[in-house]
């Protein structure tokens, strides 16, 4: 056992694989429940897109969170893990008919609608089933978030949501459609946000919109502010649990809710990010012209975030205590972007050593691909490896 890892167990397993420390996950969830629970109208959903592993979903459901889904597949995964269907929200710009029908059959809590044509189709499909679908409108608040360009979503140029200018028109339209019921507003400005000022900017925008609606005597049942709370990827020691106290209190302080309204959150990364690591074996240590490479059996197919977003994941050699040397850590895929880190200081590396790529619980396993005809990575929880 080095650090928190059961290294001897790891040696018996085929690499690469994801390892989830369920103690970290449970600690994170109890912190969320404690901090959100301070405000009686806060309701937290988990964004299934971050990690749909069945065991992870089951633990999250046991802790009482709802599920935010973006596809029929995610709705099925949430139902299989036991999430009550009245705690499932379905969002996404391109919902197909079968996916809408699935949501209708399950009587889910709400569809987050992103366009007029989508609203019309939901109305039509609900009518065919003799149902009334609960809908929230995803409003594009035109608020920039200080994060990577690929994961900001709240700007006018992004494909997401209905513009603030169109909101009145869409609400008028919903009033004419008998098989939809307008119940909420939905926002999401981006992901891996660590500056609370970005959330304050969103709150201010939501307050403005609420005033406009109030002038029309409309008070929606719920406001959904999306997810986006970031995690600390670069912490040198342990991977800290995000500051949920600060996050929820920011919303409590800045978002003006009417007494009967509830505030919904849909957090992904902040829930599962820190509990997961990708465990990989060193295949070769290769001497380059002026550097040395540690070549792993995991590649960008197993964890694409560094290649796609230049994301940093802390890398540790969990089987060596020898003096530190510097390495470029790379995978075996035939792409020059298949690099996990450059000039990384690691305990001296040998063929067969095991590496942990930390903070990989969110958007890791779920984004794995079979490019180069590779096998998808396995996943184990700490409970399974005792
Ligand atoms: N709600 C909506 C509408 C979203 O689009 C997202 C994430 C979330 C909630 C959850 O956001 P979170 O709390 O996890 O930040 N693959 C990228 C992240 C893409 C996020 C997409 N939307 C990454 O690996 O960084």
TrEMBL record:
Residue ranges occupied by any Orn/DAP/Arg decarboxylase 2 C-terminal domain in the UniProt entry: 18-361
UniProt GO BP: lysine biosynthetic process via diaminopimelate
InterPro entries noted in UniProt: Ala_racemase/Decarboxylase_C (IPR009006), DAP_deCOOHase_LysA (IPR002986), De-COase2_C (IPR022643), De-COase2_N (IPR022644), De-COase2_pyr-phos_BS (IPR022653), Orn/DAP/Arg_de-COase (IPR000183), PLP-binding_barrel (IPR029066)
Binding site for pyridoxal 5'-phosphate: 228, 266-269, 363
Positions with a binding annotation for substrate: 269, 305, 309, 335, 363
Cofactor dependence: pyridoxal 5'-phosphate
Signal peptide region: none
Pathway: Amino-acid biosynthesis; L-lysine biosynthesis via DAP pathway; L-lysine from DL-2,6-diaminopimelate: step 1/1
Pfam families, sorted: Orn_Arg_deC_N, Orn_DAP_Arg_deC
Keywords noted in UniProt: Amino-acid biosynthesis, Decarboxylase, Lyase, Lysine biosynthesis, Pyridoxal phosphate
Free-text function comment from the UniProt entry: Specifically catalyzes the decarboxylation of meso-diaminopimelate (meso-DAP) to L-lysine.
Subunit and partners: Homodimer.
Name the record gives this protein: Diaminopimelate decarboxylase
Lineage, opening ranks: Bacteria, Pseudomonadati, Bacteroidota, Bacteroidia, Bacteroidales
Protein encoded by which gene: lysA
């Amino acid at each position: 056992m080095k650090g928190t890892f059961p290294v001897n167990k790891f040696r018996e397993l085929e690499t690469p694989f994801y390892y989830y420390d369920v103690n970290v996950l449970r600690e994170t969830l109890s912190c969320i429940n404690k901090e959100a629970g301070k405000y009686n109208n806060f309701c937290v959903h988990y964004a299934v897109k971050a990690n749909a592993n069945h065991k992870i979903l089951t633990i999250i459901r046991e802790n009482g969170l709802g599920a935010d889904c973006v596809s029929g597949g995610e709705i099925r995964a949430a139902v299989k893990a036991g999430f009550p269907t009245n705690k499932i929200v379905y969002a996404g710009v391109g919902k197909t008919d079968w996916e809408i029908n699935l949501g209708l059959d399950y009587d889910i809590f709400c569809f987050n609608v992103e366009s007029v044509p989508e609203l019309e189709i939901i109305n039509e499909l609900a009518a065919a089933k003799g149902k009334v679908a609960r809908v929230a409108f995803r409003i594009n608040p035109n608020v920039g978030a200080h994060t990577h360009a690929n994961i900001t979503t709240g700007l006018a140029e992004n494909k997401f949501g209905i513009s603030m200018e169109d909101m009145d028109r869409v609400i008028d339209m919903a009033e004419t459609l008998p098989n939809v019921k307008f119940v909420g507003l939905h926002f999401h400005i981006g992901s891996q946000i660590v500056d609370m000022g970005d959330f304050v900017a969103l709150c201010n925008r939501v307050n403005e919109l609420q005033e406009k609606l109030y002038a029309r005597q409309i008070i929606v049942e719920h406001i959904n502010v999306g997810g986006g709370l970031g995690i600390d990827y670069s912490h040198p020691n342990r991977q800290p649990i995000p500051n949920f106290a600060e996050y929820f209190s920011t919303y409590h302080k800045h978002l003006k809710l009417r007494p009967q309204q509830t505030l919904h959150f849909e957090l992904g990364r902040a829930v599962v990010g820190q509990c997961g690591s990708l465990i990989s074996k060193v295949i070769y240590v290769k001497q380059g012209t002026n550097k040395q490479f540690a070549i792993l059996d995991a590649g960008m197919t197993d964890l694409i975030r560094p290649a796609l977003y230049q994301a940093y994941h802390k890398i540790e050699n969990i089987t060596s205590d020898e003096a530190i040397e510097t390495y470029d850590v790379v995978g075996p895929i035939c792409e020059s972007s298949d690099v996990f880190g450059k000039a990384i200081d690691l305990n001296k590396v040998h063929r067969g050593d095991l590496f942990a790529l930390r903070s990989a619980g969110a958007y890791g396993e779920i984004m794995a691909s079979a490019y180069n005809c590779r096998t998808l990575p396995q996943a184990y929880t700490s409970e399974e490896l005792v």
